[in-house]
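User: I'm writing a tutorial on reading structure tokens. Could you give me a worked example: one chain, its sequence, then its tokens, then a sentence or two explaining what the tokens reveal?
Assistant: Sure. Here is the example chain.
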Amino acid sequence: MAGRAAAPGAAVLLVTANVGSLFDDPENLQKNWLREFYQALGSFYFLHESLKNIYQFDFKAKKYKKVTGKEIYSDTLESTPMLEKEKFPQDYFPECKWSRKGFIRTRWCIADCAFDLVNIHLFHDASNLVAWESSPSVYSGVRHRALDYVLHRIVDQRFEKVSYFVFGDFNFRLDSKSVVETLCTKATMQTIRAADTNEVVKLVFRECDNDRKVMLQLEKKLFDYFNQEVFRDNNGTALLEFDKELSVFKDRLYELDISFPPSYPYSEDSSQGQQYMKTRCPAWCDRILMSPSAKELVLRSESEEKVVTYDHIGPNVCMGDHKPVFLAFRVAPGAGKPHAHVHKCCVVQ
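And here are its predicted structure tokens:
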């Protein structure tokens, strides 16, 4: 979160960043990642020094505490009262024996307005072949269940309800069956099975003419389409019709219009910042979503100057397999006063 004293209100910047790739090649990737990140931020503070009267919620004491100076927590995150952290139940994704997937929630009161920041990491697609079998895919259903779990947790009766932002790696994927059928409309499919188990291990789509040119090869961890430009042309917006996973939550979550290319899976080669890996179908995995009341905070302005930006970071350089996505907006002074409560915070029922 950032703020500048020159303009009224508090400027807020939310950033998603799946940084797992940085540890595979820190010497080459970390420098580029930090440079692009700093350019996007200007100066980065968790809370900018110009912001005054900031409160953070203590979930154990069930009250806000004024943020002063610097506080260091040396225990595990689970024992820290200033946040809630949960991993999803193991039976949500039994294919994965061990997982860090889950969410972390903090609550803040800034510019007389209270809101939750919920960082989330949902389940991935374990196999392209399985994802292709049905529409929507089985993995889409798993993510739906996990996100529904989070939304129920952050609006339950333990604490007062406030506006909230949910952001991170949702692992949302395009509807694989629809995408493949659209990309390979004029193609024939060849099924290749394992000799010992008869299990399908590869699908090959070839053009009906043009010397039977291979258009797409699909394996468990291979999505090799012959023309990657379709994912980059006009920021890939032609494929947004296949981005369907959020539609289930249309009455509970809002998102600004997407005007950036799919955020995953980019090459982890530091010299190929714009190239997608041939492991998965490119998709908008990294998102910033908000509750209906948070939407009003983002889009509401008490001045003529209203700047809201929803975009990605580092379009031309390698940032790892995920491009960070950010949302920048300004909270108008006193935006929450009609619903004033504890510490003049905006409590939305």
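What the tokens reveal: Confidence is low (pLDDT under 50) at residues 1-7, 41-45, 338-344. The chain has five helices and 14 strands.
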